[in-house]
Automatic annotation (TrEMBL):
It comes from Candidatus Enterococcus ferrettii. It comes from the Bacteria. The lineage of its organism: Bacteria, Bacillati, Bacillota, Bacilli, Lactobacillales. InterPro entries: UROD/MetE-like_sf, Uroporphyrinogen_deCOase. It holds the Pfam family URO-D. Residues 72-313 form the Uroporphyrinogen decarboxylase (URO-D) domain. This is Uroporphyrinogen decarboxylase (URO-D) domain-containing protein.
Length: 317
C-alpha cells in the first residue's frame, strides 16, 4: 500500500496494512535563511530519511512585524497581504516544488498558522507578551482589536486559498489561544471561534482536502475546539489534563494523531526497546479509534532521524 493510500484508508474509516505515521520538526535557521531551494531540499531529505507517511510542509513565512503594537489605534495598521505578497508567493513556490517532487508518494500537509499565532506575530511581541496585551485592549476597546483580527483573517484567507490550490492532500491548521487562562471566554466565543470556524468551513467544502487540527501549547481547554470543522485532531496529550477517553467524548469519531511526547520522553531520550514498548502502549490507548502515529507537536530540530525511520520499520512488523 502506498503511503498516501495508507493515510486515506484511515481517513475513510478503513483498515490500512499498517498504522500510518507523521512526524515533523522545524529545520535549522540557516537552512530557512537560504530560501526556497534549501527548504525544499530539507523537506525531501527528511521524507527519504524518515520514510514518513505524512510529510508536513512547514511554513516559516510568518506574518511577523518589527513594530511592537502598544496603543489601541495601532491594530488597524497591521500590514495587509495580497495574493502577490512575497510571503504568499515564496510559500506557494515551496509547496508546488514539493508536490511535484513527491509524485503522490507521501500524504502532503500544507501548514496554515492560526489567526492567534499570526495576530501575535503581527503585534511584534512574543507569545508570552501578546495575549495579555490583546486581552487588555479587547476589554478596553473590542472594535480596535477586531480591526486587527479582521486583517489577519483576510491575510490567512490568502494563505489558505493558496495552500488548498497547491496540490497538497491536507491542511495542517495550527490553532492557538485556547489554553487555560490565556484568553477570556468572551474573546474566544465572540471573536476567535467564529473566525477560525469560518476559515475551516472553506476547507470542509473541498472534499478532496482534509483538515488536520493542531491544538498548540499545553493546558489547552479542548472544549474550545469542539465545533471546529476537522478530520484529524492533534494536541499536547502528554501535557494535558484530559485522558484520551475524555478527549474522545469531545471530538467523537475523528482521527487522532499523536502518541509520543514531542520534546522529552521515550522518543527523544529512549532506546529502541523503550520506543517499541511505547508503541505497544499507544496501540492499546488508541484501540477502537482511527489513529495516526505521531507526536504532540514539532520534534527537536536535532533529533536523529534514524529514530523515526526505526518507527516506520516497527510499524511494518
Amino acid at each position: 500500500m502506498k503511503k498516501i493510500e495508507r493515510v486515506n484508508c484511515v481517513l475513510k474509516g478503513e483498515v490500512p496494512d499498517q498504522p500510518p505515521m507523521g512526524f515533523w520538526l522545524h529545520f535549522p535557521k540557516d537552512t530557512i535563511s537560504k530560501g526556497v531551494e534549501a527548504q525544499v531540499a530539507a523537506h525531501l531529505e527528511f521524507k527519504e530519511k524518515t520514510q514518513t507517511d505524512i510529510l508536513k510542509i512547514m511554513n516559516e513565512n510568518e506574518m511577523r512585524s518589527n513594530h511592537k503594537i502598544e496603543q489601541l489605534h495601532e491594530w488597524k495598521n497591521i500590514p495587509k497581504l495580497s495574493r502577490d505578497s512575497k510571503l504568499i508567493t515564496d510559500q506557494a513556490d515551496i509547496l508546488q516544488r514539493i508536490v511535484e517532487a513527491n509524485q503522490e508518494n507521501c500524504y502532503l500537509l500544507g501548514t496554515v498558522h492560526g489567526v492567534i499565532a499570526s495576530l501575535s506575530h503581527a503585534s511584534g511581541h512574543s507569545y508570552s507578551v501578546s495575549p495579555p496585551l490583546i486581552n487588555d485592549h479587547y476589554q478596553r476597546n473590542p472594535k480596535a482589536v477586531m480591526e486587527g483580527l479582521k486583517i489577519i483573517e483576510e491575510n490567512t484567507q490568502y494563505v489558505l486559498e493558496m495552500t488548498m490550490n497547491s496540490g497538497v492532500q491536507g491542511i495542517y491548521y495550527a490553532a492557538l489561544g485556547g489554553e487555560k487562562d490565556k484568553f477570556s471566554d468572551t474573546f474566544i466565543q465572540e471573536l476567535l471561534r467564529p473566525t477560525e470556524c469560518g476559515l475551516l468551513k472553506q476547507v470542509e467544502k473541498r472534499e478532496e482536502i482534509s483538515t488536520f487540527l493542531h491544538i498548540c501549547k499545553e493546558e489547552t481547554v479542548l472544549e474550545n475546539y469542539r465545533d471546529y470543522p476537522c478530520d484529524v485532531v492533534n494536541w499536547a496529550m502528554h501535557e494535558s489534563s484530559y485522558s484520551f477517553s475524555e478527549a474522545r467524548q469531545i471530538f467523537g469519531n475523528k482521527v487522532y494523531l499523536g502518541g509520543f511526547d514531542d520534546r522529552s520522553g521515550v522518543l527523544v531520550d529512549g532506546n529502541e526497546q523503550e520506543i517499541q514498548e511505547k508503541l505497544n502502549d499507544i496501540y492499546q490507548e488508541f484501540k477502537g479509534s482511527r489513529y495516526i502515529i505521531g507526536a504532540d507537536c514539532t520534534l527537536p530540530t536535532d533529533i536523529p532521524l534514524t529514530k523515526l525511520s526505526d518507527i516506520h520499520d516497527y510499524l511494518k512488523q
